[in-house]
């Protein structure tokens, strides 16, 4: 398959206070894959996403989105941060949070109008959260909050979606609902990149995987590289996962 | 009311509005203490500015002092970034240092300078009308009124222009950064506005009241609303209300205006803290009591549904079996009766049709925990309150 490269990372090194968190990462993510980034705690999974999105400044290396720097391609990218990274007591409603997804296309100063509201309502409908549109966000369950975040990314109508642990602290129903939406995105030709923790579900949910532990261990199709060898290299212990199931 | 009285109230109200706007965002960003730091550490800036201009209301002085405010923020962040101390410690290190430099500068030059520490800490709103702005020989009003008015217009302009940017970067820094709304720019923009507002308000109300006017109205508004725009409007209203009522309290008590306004802010917060409809202490206690009763009622109904034997449904048995105190079981029994959920026949309790339906629905809800059903059940539960 000769797909276009959606995201290209070259020699990326990121450090917090001179301690490298990511070391010389080279990565090519083909268009249209549903990719998991896996690795132990502190492996730099979130850092990788944040560096690609320009939230963190790398000390070396470069990133391109469809051959151009991220700053020029913001409109093509949507980001779902970790749920715990925001204050859910913030005085705002579910609809308002989803509307924030439209701010990027509006640019500075311009305000959202009816068009943006309509898009936000459609996204809420897609994640099954329309009945909760006026609910204050602290009154939502963990799974509902994650759906709101997903809707906010959907409303950006991007080509590439980055998600930081979207399955953290959600129940089985929500997990299935989310993965179905992600699979739909892939079907529509979008590229979806997910920081993921549950190794058991990798073969079932994803078609592409990147093993990361400060350095990149391996990247490629799940059926080719999701094996004990790479798991052991990444996690440092003999990891037994049955990928036949 | 004399014109001086009106002017004082007008200045106090404008200061309150100018403070409430950045204050709301500081509270939401959990940066309330930064405003305290800024209000103290701008002192050396004010003193130096005063040496140069000999005028507490000069724009140069305001600019210099605002720069010191921003310097405070930069220093705090720098110290914090080393990872050696936490943010609150960094704040505690920076602002007393800068403030004390200002205090020493005042003390060294106290003889020839009209500026003293008391006025800096508490301000002197009562004197504000005496310092007039003269434009080609015509009196156009107190200088502080013009200064705070100008600052307020700029603040409101910025708020309208960048409301969405402020909102998204306050709620979700990561998203704001990925969308291209630089959180650093917005952060320092907010810090600059807070610093300038602090300096502008400082002369009129002093360092301590500035903090109170920034934080207390926003904190009070936070208890009352779930929407950012409303929070801003409430904060502004609380600020203005405290400013005006505080002025009159000071008038009647013949006490410090700044002190009275701050007292009003404190009282207002206390009242809302106690009586706010959904988050107030009393409302929370009441709701908890209601919920306990609802759970008891449900337990009671479930027991009836599970047991068809007469023995299990006798009133006295229920008392022993569910292990409630007499008063409690009586409340629950009456509540169920009042809502036609049960019927009593010779002290034998049985469910009515309505009671049966309600119990099945409740079990469904508890087992499936489906969102859709919660909505419906919440309305139902509400029927049985009180």
Automatic annotation (TrEMBL), chain A:
Pfam families: ABC_tran (PF00005). One of its GO terms (molecular function) is ATP hydrolysis activity. PROSITE patterns: ABC_TRANSPORTER_1, ABC_TRANSPORTER_2. InterPro entries: AAA+_ATPase (IPR003593), ABC_transporter-like_ATP-bd (IPR003439), ABC_transporter-like_CS (IPR017871), Metal_Ion_Import_ABC (IPR050153), P-loop_NTPase (IPR027417). Keywords: ATP-binding, Nucleotide-binding, Transport. Residues 7-239 form the ABC transporter domain. Gene3D superfamilies: P-loop containing nucleotide triphosphate hydrolases. Belongs to the ABC transporter superfamily. This is Metal ABC transporter ATP-binding protein. It comes from Hyunsoonleella flava.
Automatic annotation (TrEMBL), chain B:
Keywords: Cell membrane, Membrane, Transmembrane, Transmembrane helix, Transport. One of its GO terms (biological process) is transmembrane transport. The chain crosses the membrane at residues 6-28, 37-54, 60-78, 90-107, 144-163, 175-198, 204-224, 231-250, 256-276. It is found in: Cell membrane. Pfam families: ABC-3. The keyword Protein transport does not apply. It is a multi-pass membrane protein. SUPFAM superfamilies: ABC transporter involved in vitamin B12 uptake, BtuC. One of its GO terms (cellular component) is ATP-binding cassette (ABC) transporter complex. InterPro entries: ABC_BtuC-like, ABC_TroCD. Belongs to the ABC-3 integral membrane protein family. This is Metal ABC transporter permease. It comes from Hyunsoonleella flava.
